[in-house]
Amino acid sequence: MLKVRTYVALAALVVFGQSVFADQVTLRNGDRLTGTILKSDDKALVLKTEFAGEVTVEWPAITEINSAKPLHVALKSGQTLVGGIKTADGQIEVEPANRQPVSVSKDAISSLRSESEEVAYERSLHPRLLEGWAGGVDLGFALTRGNSETQNLNLAFIADRKTTWDHIGLYANSVFASNDEPGAIPGTTAESTQGGARYDRNFAARGFSFGEADFETDALQSLDLRSVLSGGLGWHAIKTSRATLDFLGGINYTNEDYSSLQRNLVAITAGEELVRKFGAASVITEKLYVYPDLNQTGEYRAAFNLGTVTKLSKWLGWQNAFGDIYVTNPPAGKQRNDLQLTTGLNVAFKH
After folding, report:
1. If you ran DSSP here, which 8-state letter would residue 315 be given?
2. Mind listing the pLDDT tens digit for each residue in 297-346?
3. pLDDT at site 96
4. What is the rounded CA–CA span in Å between residue 263 and residue 61?
5. Domain map of the chain by residue range?
6. Are 144 and 349 in contact (CB under 8 A)?
7. Distance (Å, rounded) from C-alpha 46 to C-alpha 37?
8. What is the spatial distance between Cα 339 and Cα 329, in angstroms, rounded to a whole number?
9. How far apart are CA 319 and CA 249, in angstroms?
10. Would you identify the CATH topology of the domain 133-350?
11. What is the CA 269 to chain-centroid distance, rounded?
């Protein structure tokens, strides 16, 4: 009988000890949740529970917060406190080590972070150059044999690294198509490659500066290489988790090497870029740039790109891309427009 009482007492002590050392959140309807507070902002709090995993609770629904473990408490005033927290008389008391408790209102708190979340947050502010990259590789291929002899290959690559302060973007794409029928003219029906890099640096909540280098070849337009170096300022007109819309303006230096001529010119850079998420699986991107030539009034180059990616799994998706490059003054006998429409698989990656 004594052993049974001992076991019951030990079990009660374990349960009681878990409730004492666990974080606790009380809601407006009287419910209480226990677990480990991971993080919060002024919209929601994330609590890791033993049996339900991570639970997200709306911040306005919370009336009391108690945590014995130290939390990093960021206030809207800009001050940061570190310590255990408890609720007393409707105020949140932060208890820093070896210091007097500091009492603040719940509305004055902009975020809470556990020690592990604080480490991750600090690392996200100053990631190493090879960290924080996300992007994808597009692949499309078509082949016909029999009554027709054609092949078509398109490859594309895009990678982005965004931090609180800056953004690095890399891209490359290539399209090749041929008609292999004996005597077909032309035998090559598409052969173009584009690639480049851009660096943005935020100097305000909405404003940023940018520098960019773009390169392009197009065999059917007799373009051996077009090099464009651009720089200027941009504005985040829309900047949310679901959509971004940027307007950019500046100046560029362009060098064009065609088979029959060479041009060097200074032009204006004016453009806009849109990224919009639809649901949990689809993203649409759109870009439009115009480059008016400052050397010859009335001459310009324009580039338009529209793409969609729909996720089929965590890393695999289906992509569609449309592009149009327009030049007002191509070499004699060449078309002004070059249109491209590609579709295929998208393989996403993160690092």
Report:
1. S
2. 899 999 999 999 999 998 999 999 999 999 998 888 888 988 888 999 99
3. 87
4. 65
5. 2-125, 133-350
6. no
7. 6
8. 16
9. 29
10. Porin (2.40.160)
11. 24
